C-alpha cells in the first residue's frame, strides 16, 4: 500500500511530527514493492532537501525500484551517488545494480560492477553472480558465463541450479554442446539438483549440433533425477 504510506508521510508535519530516516525508508520501500520508482526517487531527493541523510536502506530500496522498472541507467547513477550521501554500497546495492543490467543485456557493465565489488572487498553473493551469469547468457558470452561459474567456487559462493542453468543456456545458444554436457554432468558434484531447464538446455545444445550420440553417452553416466528429467523431455520431444 504505497499510496497509504505516502499519504501518512505527507500528513506527519500536520501533527507536528518531523519525518526521519526510518519514516522515509519505510515509504521508499513501499514504493519499491509497488513498482513506483519515480516516487522512490522523489522521496530520496526530498530527504536531502529536508536535511535528512539517506542511509543504506534508503539507497538500496531506490536502486531496487529502478531495477524492477528496467531503469538500469538510474540504478547505476544512484549507485555512483551513494558516496555523496556518505553511504558505502554493500552487496545488496551492487546486486540490485547488476540485476538491472542483466535485464537489458548490459553484460559489460554487469562485469565491471562485479569486478568493482572485488576491488572494494565487497564479497559477491549468489544473487550478484547469478545476475552476471544471466547477463552473459543473454548476450551469448558463454565463455564468460563459465568463468563466472568457476569464480563462484573460488569465492566460496555455492552455485544454485539457476546459476548452472544460465551457463548451460549460454553454451546452448553458442553451439557449445560439449561445455553444456560437461556442466550438466557436473551438477551432482556441486550438490545441487538439476531441473527441467538444465536438461532441456543441454538437449537443445546437442540437437543444434546434431550430437545425439554424445547425449546418449552422457545419459549413461547420469542417474536419478537428471536421468528421469531428461527421459521425460526426450519422450515429450518424440511425440
Question: Can you characterise this structure?
Answer:
It holds the Pfam family PPR_3. This is Pentatricopeptide repeat-containing protein, chloroplastic. Keywords: Repeat. Helix content is 72%, strand content 0%. The longest helix is centred in the last third of the chain and has 15 residues. It has a domain of 74 residues. With 239 residues, it is mainly alpha-helical.
Number of strands: 0
| Share in helix | over 70%
- How far apart the termini lie comes to 48 Å
What overall geometry do the principal axes of the alpha carbons give? elongated
Keywords: Repeat
Organism: Alexandrium monilatum
PPR repeats: 20-54, 55-89, 125-159
InterPro entries: PPR_rpt, TPR-like_helical_dom_sf
Topology:
Elements: H1 2-11, H2 21-33, H3 37-49, H4 56-68, H5 72-81, H6 91-103, H7 107-119, H8 126-138, H9 142-154, H10 161-173, H11 177-186, H12 196-209, H13 212-219, H14 224-238
Helix pairs in contact: 1-2, 2-3, 2-4, 3-4, 4-5, 4-6, 5-6, 6-7, 6-8, 7-8, 8-9, 8-10, 9-10, 10-11, 10-12, 11-12, 12-14
Protein name: Pentatricopeptide repeat-containing protein, chloroplastic
PPR repeats: 20-54, 55-89, 125-159
Keywords: Repeat
Summary?
This protein has 239 residues and is mostly helical. The chain has helices at residues 2-11, 21-33, 37-49, 56-68, 72-81, 91-103, 107-119, 126-138, 142-154, 161-173, 177-186, 196-209, 212-219, 224-238.
Amino acid at each position: 500500500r504505497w499510496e497509504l504510506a505516502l499519504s501518512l508521510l505527507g500528513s506527519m508535519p500536520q501533527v507536528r511530527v518531523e519525518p526521519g530516516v526510518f519514516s522515509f525508508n519505510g515509504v521508499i520501500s513501499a514504493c519499491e514493492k509497488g513498482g513506483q520508482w519515480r516516487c522512490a526517487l522523489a522521496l530520496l531527493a526530498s530527504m536531502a532537501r529536508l536535511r535528512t541523510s539517506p542511509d543504506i536502506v534508503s539507497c538500496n530500496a531506490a536502486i531496487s525500484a529502478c531495477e524492477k522498472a528496467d531503469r538500469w541507467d538510474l540504478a547505476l547513477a544512484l549507485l555512483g551517488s551513494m558516496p555523496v550521501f556518505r553511504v558505502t554500497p554493500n552487496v545488496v546495492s551492487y546486486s540490485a545494480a547488476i540485476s538491472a543490467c542483466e535485464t537489458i543485456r548490459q553484460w559489460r557493465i554487469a562485469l565491471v560492477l562485479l569486478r568493482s565489488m572485488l576491488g572494494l572487498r565487497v564479497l559477491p553473493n549468489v544473487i550478484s553472480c547469478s545476475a552476471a551469469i544471466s547477463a552473459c547468457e543473454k548476450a551469448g558470452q558463454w565463455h564468460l558465463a563459465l568463468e563466472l561459474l568457476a569464480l563462484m567456487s573460488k569465492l566460496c559462493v555455492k552455485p544454485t541450479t539457476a546459476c548452472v542453468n544460465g551457463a548451460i543456456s549460454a553454451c546452448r545458444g553458442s553451439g557449445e554442446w560439449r561445455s553444456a554436457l560437461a556442466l550438466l554432468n557436473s551438477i551432482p558434484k556441486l550438490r545441487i539438483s538439476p531441473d527441467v531447464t538444465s536438461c532441456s538446455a543441454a538437449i537443445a545444445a546437442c540437437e543444434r549440433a546434431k550430437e545425439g550420440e554424445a547425449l546418449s553417452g552422457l545419459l549413461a553416466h547420469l542417474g536419478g533425477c537428471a536421468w528421469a528429467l531428461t527421459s521425460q523431455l526426450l519422450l515429450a520431444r518424440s511425440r
